[in-house]
Amino acid sequence: MGGIIILDQFTKILIQRTMELHQSHVIIKGFFNLTHIHNPGAAFGLFADHESSLRTLFLTIVGILAVILLGLFFRKSPDKAWGTHLAFSLILGGALGNLIDRIWLGAVVDFLDFYIGRYHWPAFNVADSSISVGLALLVILFLKGKGKADRDFLFQESG
């Protein structure tokens, strides 16, 4: 988790120090650019058009609540549930990385810009990637039930 936060913040600081806002560098023509943007909204720019002070406050509170909830899930998962621990660590590290941006900047720094022709994926960052990989791992663990400890934690009956 700590490594994700450090890598995420390092890459964002590097982009901010070496590129102007909205500046773009072609890395692979027709497929990938580094583009410095600030996303004031949530994932994929959701809520970006809403009034800024309320949006920032709302998304910061949601981010803090998500981090607390993820931390509780992480602590509740058994020590032997390595897959679940890894998934929650990736998600939690990414959530904290983006929460740091939101608290300090009021927006999240994004810079990984993939596209094919005119079809464009919303720009993202290391934290977003970590969250996506962690969620994918949780889905795989849930669907496959890999590992007894992961299966017991993910499939426990609510009482």
Quick summary of this structure?
The chain has 159 residues and is α+β, with helices and mostly antiparallel strands.
Based on helices, strands and strand pairing, what is the structural class?
A: alpha+beta
Shape, please? globular
Could you spell the SSE succession in H and E letters? HEEHHEEHH
- Quote the distance from N terminus to C terminus: 31 Å
Question: For the CA atoms, what is the radius of gyration?
Answer: 17 Å
Approximately how much helix is present in the residues? 55-70%
Number of extended strands = 4
Largest sheet: 4 strands, antiparallel
Walkthrough of the structure:
This protein has 159 residues and is an alpha+beta fold. It has a domain at 2-20 and 52-114 and 126-154. It is built from five helices and four strands; from the N terminus they run αββααββαα. It has helices at 2-18, 52-76, 82-105, 126-144, 148-154; strands at 24-28, 32-39, 108-116, 119-120. The chain has a four-stranded antiparallel β-sheet with strand order 1-2-3-4. A hairpin with a 3-residue loop joins strand 1 and strand 2.
Task: Offer a few descriptive terms.
alpha+beta; 4 strands; globular
